[in-house]
Amino acid sequence: MARRAVRGSRGAAAGEPPGQVRIIGGAWRGRRLPVLVAPGLRPTPDRVRETLFNWLAPVIPGMRCLDLYAGTGALGLEALSRGAAEVCFVERQLPVARALEQALARLGCESPRASVVAADAARFLGGRPRPFDLVFLDPPFGEADFGELCTLLDGGWLAAGARLYLEMARDQPLPPLPPDWVVLREKAAGQVRFALVQRPASP
Question: Global pTM?
Answer without folding.
Answer: 0.88
